[in-house]
Amino acid sequence: QKEVEQNSGPLSVPEGAIASLNCTYSDRGSQSFFWYRQYSGKSPELIMSIYSNGDKEDGRFTAQLNKASQYVSLLIRDSQPSDSATYLCAPSGNTGKLIFGQGTTLQVKP
Amino acid sequence: DGGITQSPKYLFRKEGQNVTLSCEQNLNHDAMYWYRQDPGQGLRLIYYSQIVNDFQKGDIAEGYSVSREKKESFPLTVTSAQKNPTAFYLCASSAYGTVSGNTIYFGEGSWLTVV
Question: Which of B34, B43, B56, B112 should be substituted to probe chain A, the one whose Cβ sees the most A Cβ atoms within 10 Å?
Fold first, then answer.
């Protein structure tokens, strides 16, 4: 079992729709969870972090965490073509290192 | 401006050569990291350092070496033992030590190509 699993996609949604990105992780000791966005050929940039079970909203983005199910997700409302990128899930393990998933490629079609 | 500076942005390596990628941060972060990314793949950890003069191997350390003589600097050497070094290399740093401090921030990356 991979430490962090994400559907590689591509996930294609029409402009204005909600995009739902999912991630499961194996380390039950993970305390912090991060979502990064990476445009092709660029370095990842932090979108959101979440530490507690439940939802956390920031603008058009909502992160959801369920530690019992070892599941974290990212919802993007009112998706825009500029949201087209690869989204990386990264739980922080017991040692504090971030372990990255392979990423989900999102395509938002005008 | 605070941030992480990687250089060079593009680098070409001949067979059998060692090359060094520079990474400097002025964020006063304790921890620094090197990741490798192959096309269409996720990030794999090469080495990380949580304090000066100490570092640990990540998942793919073979063929690489690092040093951490100063808090702000964490250079990566790609040695001739690394047989397939062509990749995008990312340096990152974090405050470390607290849950929220585990957030890592990335430099702009360095592209290494073997010619």
Answer: B43
Contact B90 A51 (CB under 8 A): no
**Residue A32 is nearest to which of B42, B97, B99, comparing CB atoms?**
B99
Could you list the beta-strand ranges (E) of chain A: 4-5, 11-14, 19-25, 32-38, 45-50, 54-58, 61-66, 71-76, 85-92, 104-109
Specify the residue for token string 């990314």.
Answer: B37
Contact predicate A80/A19, CB 8 Å = no
Q: Is B70 exposed, middle or buried (0-12, 13-18, 19+ CB in 10 A)?
A: exposed
Residues 1..30 of B with a Cβ closer than 8 Å to A: which? none
Residue A9 Cα distances to A62, A84, A103, A107, B20, angstroms: 20, 12, 9, 9, 35
B46 close to B55: Cβ distance less than 8 angstroms = no
Per-residue pLDDT tens over the stretch A71-102: 999 999 999 999 999 999 999 866 667 788 99
Amino acid at A67: K
> How far is Cα A54 from Cα A24, in angstroms, rounded to an integer?
15
Is the pLDDT at B102 greater than 80, yes or no?
no
Q: What is the pLDDT of residue B95?
A: 84
Mean pLDDT of chain B: 91
Name the 3-class secondary structure at B28.
coil
